[in-house]
Amino acid sequence: MTNTTTSRTAPSSGPSTDVDVLIIGAGISGIGAASHLKALRPGTSFAILEDRDAIGGTWDLFRYPGIRSDSDMPTFGYGFKPWAHRKSIADGHLILDYLRQTVDEYELARHIRFGHRVVSAEFSSAQGRWTVTAQQHGSRKKARFTARFLFLGTGMYDHDAGFTPKFTGIEDFAGTVIHPQHWPADLDHTGKRVVVIGSGATAVTLIPSMARTAGHVTMLQRSPSYVFSLPAHDSLAHALRKLVGHKRAHRMVRRKNILFTRGIYKASRRMPKLMRRLLIANVRRQLPRHFDVDTHFTPRYDPWDQRLCVVPDGDLFKAISAGRASVVTDHIDRFTKTGILLKSGQELTADIVVTATGLTMSPFGGIRLSVDGRETKPSDTMAYKAMMLSGVPNLVFALGYTNLSWTLKVDLVCEHFCRLLDHMDAHGYTTVAPVLDDPTVERVPYMDLRSNYVLRGIREFPRAGTSGPWTVEMAYERDVERLREGPVEDSALRFTVGGPVPSARPEAAR
């Protein structure tokens, strides 16, 4: 291996401190990147640095009851590895098993270094390489790695801490308060009175699961979210697998699910009033006639201003209809010794309070990036094709869709990344960096969801642009055109064969 080309013939060895591609994160994005490199560029050396002691990322971190996908698995799974389980909306342990199978099939385990938290990454244009510093768990030692390319598969959340608002009097509460991100393994909620604060995806997942054995579970929300029921098992997918085999069925079901989900999203944006009526009618059909749907399941915003919450087989509605769960829409005044006092004067008695109040967004795992000694804040950069950063050489990141399965975007990014490496090898290029030199491009937020966690954290992320390769549209069909089918060469890319990387004019990045 040299600094100017990535070998495609040299045998891949175990984890090294110097590699062609250094992947940060052994979650669904990092494993996807490594699998693509193994399949499309078998001679490329790579290593994966993982902060935790196990693969899986989010799916290993979160251990709360009932954790599951909120996307269908034929599209949330990888395009190169068909989802074989009959469950389409799958439990977390099934997703972890799927990821472990992928690691085994592509022989990735020997490339992973666990217990390495990356704290900084510095690029040298003169050397054409990244120097990455990682803190090793249980040690004061810091490990250093060098790589030609950096692939950030870190997701978009802070794995150390979720978001919990400041609640007055919480220290007075005699029961247990838990955030879902830090679920204790020994918690027994059998027969207990549980209040879950929140109305998002985590809350609607937790409640029906806990309600099976709890004394009663109450969902306490300030305002409702859109909740959409889907079958947990896809009967058509199961029939197709028997009829045409797993691989062909996978392609057909994947396409069907993409078209369905994209259709729901597009209809919601174009005909919000109609979709609002249809979504609320879907809820009303699954609850008792006397239930106050207008108060508890009629949001103030339009569909897809925030992500839809999926409930497989209507399990949340079944728990409510059976009397095992209930919904209260109100504001918290304060915690008391025995529960929560609401603004209305009602008090909810609780043994356990779960603060399903959201996550904290964190760009690229909080890694400190610098180029030639100058620190680069993600918020000062522009996202190129939603996979690279303006002015930052030899770096690719994977952030999935907010309105579709995360992994669909990861697959496209990884494919394009491999094509980019092929192109650079063919021309002997050392570095590549996107450069924003069009002063007419305006800066806009990377994503336009109005969820509270997005509004709190999106300012720290790269910005999107209003035209050209700088747009971030969350549209799978358009990303297929530019990432899978479109050319690698682009006027916004600067390739070099050594020497400093050109940067954008300051006025063009404003």
From TrEMBL:
<dbReference type="GO" id="GO:0004497">
    <property type="term" value="F:monooxygenase activity"/>
</dbReference>
<keyword id="KW-0274">FAD</keyword>
<keyword id="KW-0503">Monooxygenase</keyword>
<keyword id="KW-0285">Flavoprotein</keyword>
<dbReference type="InterPro" id="IPR036188">
    <property type="entry name" value="FAD/NAD-bd_sf"/>
</dbReference>
<protein>
    <submittedName>
        <fullName>Flavin-containing monooxygenase</fullName>
        <ecNumber>1.14.13.-</ecNumber>
    </submittedName>
</protein>
<comment type="similarity">
    <text>Belongs to the FAD-binding monooxygenase family.</text>
</comment>
<dbReference type="InterPro" id="IPR051820">
    <property type="entry name" value="FAD-binding_MO"/>
</dbReference>
<dbReference type="Pfam" id="PF13450">
    <property type="entry name" value="NAD_binding_8"/>
</dbReference>
<dbReference type="InterPro" id="IPR020946">
    <property type="entry name" value="Flavin_mOase-like"/>
</dbReference>
<keyword id="KW-0560">Oxidoreductase</keyword>
<dbReference type="Pfam" id="PF00743">
    <property type="entry name" value="FMO-like"/>
</dbReference>
